[in-house]
Amino acid sequence: MKYRRVRGTEDIFGTESEKWQQIDNIFKHICGLYGYSQIQTPVIEHSELFRRSIGEATDIVEKEIFQFQDRSGRDLSLRPEATASIIRAYLENSLYQSPGVVKLYYSGAMFRAERPQKGRKREFHQFGVEAIGSYGPELDCETIMLANRLLRSIGIEGSIIELNTLGCRKDKKKIAGYLKDIIGKNIPDLCPKCSDRFERNILRVLDCKNQACRDVLGNLNVDIKKAVCPDCINHFQELKRCLDGMGFQYRENNFLVRGLDYYSRTVFEVIHTGLGAQNAVGAGGRYDNLVEDMGGRPEGAVGFAFGLERLSFIAANLPSCSRMLDVFIVLQDYKLVGEALKEADFLRAENISVDIDFQGRSVKSQMRLANDRRARFVLIIGQEEAQKGVCSLKDMSTGEQKSLTRKDVFKTIKGGVNC
Ligand code: ATP
Ligand code: MG
């Protein structure tokens, strides 16, 4: 083999690709029910955008961004996530001028130079939403419920939403001080990464997956809410009341933080036990300073993103249409391929999927191919029949074969393909 895909990337095709499309379609539909419309932003942005919004001292910006200079020396990056790009687009296209909360969903590839492993790729795909224009905890509630609704819509059971609050910007210093005080004596017991985080981005110590670090934090009873201001605590209580009022189940997690600097107040993660070590299928939260930091008028906003790879992995019960093709046309003689093209063109115009053998195979081998392609019907075209304007139609689910006129062929197929 001459060429191989880049490390940490995947080719997605066949049933997996169909599954993704199905998830995408269902999600788009559900987002529509919540008043969202689609936004597509470029895969490349000026590096500065991510440095400023995600934060200089985060893992993403420090280690994971695919950053390069283009031929004119511009400093560009492949997007590692979409929120920053969407707020840039929101400001650049004056989307704030439309009245009400601006609700946008997106779907696309993201890039992070992480160590590839199960559930962790360098090119991965996210479906996410952003709702911009309210500080109210009710919007957090709706957004969290949307995340849950999306999972249910593709048959995912057994996920749980974990919730925490990070307080507002002015709480950050206090939280850092609180953490330094409480964890300070235990630095020798933390992993080397955490000792480093302790100095540079202490909040991330809470996020460490290392069991020894988790034990230290657990024993210390760490809870950053102790350093969060009363307004933010109130916002968090309101959110929980709102979720309780909707009968929604969630779990508070005092250790939940996010790896991006722009988050404030509510943060949440959608956990699924079927995923193993990378157990988060999606994550999100509120980011009330980002719009202003990026040059706009202050606006409260909240969003989340799901990873499609992980979603697809746990969406085992996705109701699927197992048949891939409506009709396979079998030719008794390859000379009849012109007839087949005409017939296929006619049926495809009627929304019926059709394929033909273009390799001059024997009838038997064409029938085998039709089987492989899981065709619902096989349309057999022979010389004599073509002259008479008839052909044979085999119903692959019953095995029944009939000689029919073109019109009847169409009627029978149309009646049989409503999957
Ligand atoms: P993790 O804790 O798994 O590193 P994260 O906090 O970096 O996730 P976010 O930036 O919040 O993740 O992205 C939201 C979702 O996108 C994750 O829950 C996951 O499903 C998916 N995701 C993130 N990074 C990757 C990756 N490298 N490969 C595959 N999916 C990913
Ligand atoms: Mg990560």
Radius of gyration from the alpha-carbon trace, in angstroms: 27 Å
Q: What's the CATH class of the largest domain, please?
A: Alpha Beta
Q: Please tell me the CATH architecture of the largest domain by its name.
A: 2-Layer Sandwich
Beta strands, count? 16
**End-to-end C-alpha gap:** 40 Å
CATH topology of the largest domain: BirA Bifunctional Protein, domain 2
State the CATH superfamily name of the largest domain: Bira Bifunctional Protein, Domain 2
The fraction of residues assigned to DSSP E strands is 15-25%
Briefly note the structural class of the backbone: alpha+beta
How many structural domains can be distinguished in the coordinates?
A: 2
What is the residue-mean pLDDT, rounded to a whole number? Answer: 93
Small molecules bound? adenosine-5'-triphosphate, magnesium ion
Unreliable sequence segments: none
- Binned, the helix content reads 25-40%
Shape: elongated
The total count of helices amounts to 15
Give me a quick take on this structure:
The protein has 419 residues and is α+β, with helices and mostly antiparallel strands. It has helices spanning 14-33, 47-54, 59-64, 83-92, 137-153, 169-183, 192-200, 211-220, 230-245, 290-293, 308-314, 337-349, 363-372, 383-388, 406-416, and strands at 37-38, 44-46, 67-69, 75-78, 102-111, 123-132, 159-165, 251-252, 264-272, 280-286, 301-307, 325-331, 354-356, 375-381, 390-395, 401-405.
